[in-house]
Design a protein that fits this description.
4 copies of one chain form a homotetramer. By secondary structure, chain A is α/β, with parallel strands linked by helices. The first copy, chain A, is built from 14 helices and 13 strands. Chain A folds into 2 domains: 2-6 and 256-342, Aspartate Aminotransferase, domain 1, CATH 3.90.1150.10; 14-253, 3-Layer(aba) Sandwich (Aspartate Aminotransferase, domain 2). Chain A has helices at 14-22, 35-48, 61-72, 86-89, 94-97, 114-125, 153-165, 177-181, 190-196, 226-232, 241-252, 255-276, 296-302, 331-342, and strands spanning 2-3, 54-58, 77-82, 102-105, 135-142, 169-173, 199-203, 213-217, 289-290, 293-295, 306-307, 309-315, 318-324. The two termini of chain A are 24 Å apart.
């Protein structure tokens, strides 16, 4: 079986395994207080053009989200999220388990707008019962989103401006940030994101690392005592060096972006082939996740050779599915899949 | 100013104050382990026709909701609620603060249906990522609802049946249960509710008591150690006798239902007058909360003499507002308000 | 049976019941936003000589403790408490249930010292693993303590100074503050406490009210959004007026202190009698809780007429017990008990 | 510098890195639902002789502890731990952050006894205020302990018996279980531990893996829905295969025990040398952690070449420190250290 069901079906880029092997017997301090983490933090601050940011490495995305959000909010404060946001849908209530409500804003493309945020905030403060409701204090967005879509410069700037106007914290989940930043439609870059967001993370797990997410905190008041939070929430890796080493490999020579670009290119090839074969998509996505709407009979055929995910009935005879590419996707597999779709006769 | 903004604008029915005064110097044990509580528990079990139920008295509604729900669910389990449910909207995230997600089901009239619950449950267990989502385990309904509407016998039975089929707990918030059970359209009674629900509460605060809610637990597995939970969540009143005394007064001679009926009658009078004057309602409510849609100019006039709440813009010139009656509502006030509405010329 | 087992065995001082009856039909806003609460807040600020304090009324002590502490601390921060502190021993883990560790400092008399606090704090910040431990951030003391003892001016000042030096918040649980402030040994007063503490509460439940505790927040950074916290934790009484009315009665004419003095006087009478009969005490207490060590045979006799609490084996033939007096304690009961103890022949 | 400050100063045993490299491009499902995890679970059940156990792989120890404990307890229940237990001291309140009190039992050697547990439990249920206190429901022990000591067969059996008698869950933290099971004094084995404990974990992080702990749940009622808990608490590794692969390498050919034995042998060499040089120990430890009490002047010398941890002043001129060996400790380093200690003249 050839897997297109997620972007974490393989191990890690070989350069990472090599670095781990090379440094295996070097002794270091634990808990991220080693030379490799120090170096990787410097590297990341540099690519973000934010010397005074704090950078922390955590193991996984849900862990990162729950640690960042619970570190930021007071008990009665909530985080706003698109209704499709990972924290609202796919973290088994991890945020609520830290005591905070996630308030969903409607969205069909995985994104929310500055005006939605403003409207929600104003409706809260003007409600006569405001103290009987959770207080919106953080905004969660993901880029690329769970539907593969991306924010552009103007959109992000507007969201950031609204957040600053109303003293809301802006947090970007960058589990798939590389895919967003290397797709054709993108006009964002890390320094701009670091300017606009109070905290964000750069995802490793889904972009070539064994695991790991790099949290970048740019707002001073969110920096204090963050390591206590990581430890309390179970996210402080004893051999923290493993995280530093991986991010150093990914960012010292732009490997991170090369890998993401490969995923986007293979996805684009699929998109064009599927589109050329006359099929439409649930959502137009410029990144590594594609959501074609295909005949159920074709899907039944594809299932014999390929694994896809998130199947969703569209009408009696068609379903949308998710196809993911990654740093490890082989051109031959993509071409085979395209051929199998193009060759299908309804 | 004459207040129609809530059903807790006065103190308590005089019979309650009298009973408190009469018993004031009797010495009792604390924390609800006194003779008055014991007696009131017996009384309530009897009116519910449930000898083997457990009855506990708490001070307020949000406290009761958070205690019951957090006592019932394991950490990853969620409670389903209509989108208008008090726990979803008006408890400052009290349920989330105990670690649990409240999952909102769409509703325009404050109610949810058995089929909505079934669909939600089935969609959870059939989702390939079910372990990445909160597990629905409890269903929260209120009767009467936050919009004044009520469940009938068939609806409640269907909901109860679905809950039992899928091993979901059914919890009824009865902050305004008296109003529901004494309105003209009602075909429910306490014994039937006690049969259908695993746990519910009979509200005192909004129905003539100084404060107090009587939790009735009918399902054995939810009974264990509930007093530990009350204490931990800050709801164990030192002078618990105050709760027992009030519920005994309310239920020993049907005072509870008499008071509720008065509120419904005064509300019905208002409803008919407003309707007769040509105005419509946001929702048809047979209980003590009425939601007329009135011209903004009329509301501007009414504001000089009356207090109402929950104002909500409907169109450029009209708003819906909430008018509440209660055990203490005076006929003269209701008649005056009706007159002032009828006398208005647009 | 005559109860000396707690200071909340009766209802409330009659003046409180009278006020409730007088105002019963006045309509007010809910949730503490009424004229009576406003007035009582002014009164309390005045007796504390703290015009810019925030005052809030809650129903009970555990509820108050958990609301104040969880409102103050970030998730990884802990509160220091004497090992006998109510929050450490007798609140069913209410503080931990909000996510915070209570760190116990050794104590035999219910009190802790400034140097204990300093030592604990310094040992934390000098520990190489400090981020792997909870960070002490609040100090909890009670006055009078759970053992009836009190802090004097010098002790409180030292504690307050240490807390300010290390930026720790000082919180005083005043469930029995009146008893402390009216006993013979006391040299504290409310204004001095308001100067020394960042937040404290004045207890009503155990000192003549039906229920109720008045939280006084003097430190600005702890004031923000406290009402959201009260609501979320289930402590916002719908008919908040009941709290305002009671505190107004207790403080408008010093009734609070008169009632406390009566309790202390009856306790002193007991103490002298018991001491005169040759018995010793677990701890020398100048307030309304007395802990005599009595022969088990005598206790067996006393049990037939009296209720006491907290029995604790001292040696084969003796146990310490707690005897509480209150505003409602009758001189005749105290005299009878003294006589019964004095008349006992071993 | 040569590090003896912990047992996680290097990467992983080379056999693990090799296996990761070999399998790197194999595509698998995520979240621990892959063939490698399946195989490793079978292997572990076999070495534990518990076919019907559930095995789960998590990344780190604190994460494992908080997930297991919060999955087991109801909100008002507490876990008993030696005062030196990792969950009580070194997890930044992670257990409390899930809402549960950790109740410390006195211990000087890192262990607790069956009779301490029984006494604590009985004192709870016989306390008149039992509902005002947390209810002990789980017992946490570690083996080897944080002080390097171990439980023997008789001790563990007694603890297990007491736990079953009072329906308490027994949980063993096996972060250093290999060291315990391979030291000379040990008479325990995995099948016996699996019989005695309701849940325990086998530590990988400190015993040759890059990271990873294998949770073994033997008690049926604790198995249900555990994966929801892992996900919610942020412990579900996307590339779960990494955990399965590592445990398979460690257990398929007894590598785990060989590595642990090496650490114990190098530690024993150090112990004998230090003892032979006339120094005593804080605690007699038969495993890889040694706590010699050394002159401060000697320590000042050693600091120039070696890193140790947990320094603790014993008297004016002496301190106890911790020296850890591990799977990666070189004999030459141990011999050099021994020589440097032996060669010191006071």
């Amino acid at each position: 079986m050839i897997r297109f069901n997620s972007d974490y079906t393989e191990g890690a880029h070989p350069a990472i395994l090599e670095r781990l092997a090379e440094t295996n017997f070097v002794q270091t301090n634990g808990y991220g207080e080693d030379e490799y983490c120090f170096q990787a933090k410097q590297t990341i601050k540099k690519v973000c053009n934010k010397e005074n940011a704090d950078v922390h490495f955590l193991v996984g995305g849900s862990q990162t989200n729950l640690t960042v959000i619970s570190s930021t909010l007071r008990p009665y404060q909530s985080v706003l999220s698109p209704v499709s946001g990972h924290i609202f849908v796919h973290e088994t209530g991890a945020i609520e388990a830290t005591g905070h409500k996630v308030e969903a804003l409607p969205s069909t493309d995985g994104k929310i707008t500055a005006s939605q945020i403003e409207e929600k905030y104003l409706s809260h403060i003007h409600d006569e019962s405001f103290e009987h409701m959770t207080q919106p204090k953080m905004v969660y967005i993901s880029n690329s989103t769970e539907l593969g879509t991306i924010y552009n410069r103007a959109e992000l700037k507007e969201i950031s401006d609204v957040c600053r106007q109303y003293d809301l914290y802006l947090y970007m989940d960058g589990a798939r940030l590389g895919y967003a930043l290397t797709c054709d439609e993108n006009d964002l870059d890390l320094p701009f994101i670091a300017e606009c967001c109070d905290v964000f993370y750069i995802g490793g797990t889904k972009q070539g690392a064994l695991f790991g997410e790099a949290v970048v905190i740019t707002r001073d008041e969110l920096k204090k005592d963050f390591r206590y939070m990581i430890k309390q929430k179970g996210g402080m890796l004893a051999k923290g060096r493993l995280l530093g080493l991986q991010f150093q490999v990914l960012f010292e020579d732009n490997l991170y972006f090369q890998l993401a670009r490969h995923a986007n290119e293979t996805a684009a090839f699929l998109r064009k082939s599927i589109s050329g074969a006359g099929y439409s998509f649930l959502i137009p996505s410029p990144t590594n996740q594609q959501f074609p709407i295909l005949p159920n009979d074709l899907l039944a055929e594809l299932q014999k050779k390929y694994v896809y995910s998130n199947s969703q009935q569209i009408d009696k005879n068609h379903s949308a599915v998710r196809l993911c590419t990654s740093w490890a996707t082989k051109w031959e597999d993509v071409k085979q899949l395209a051929q199998d779709i193009e060759g299908y006769n309804e």
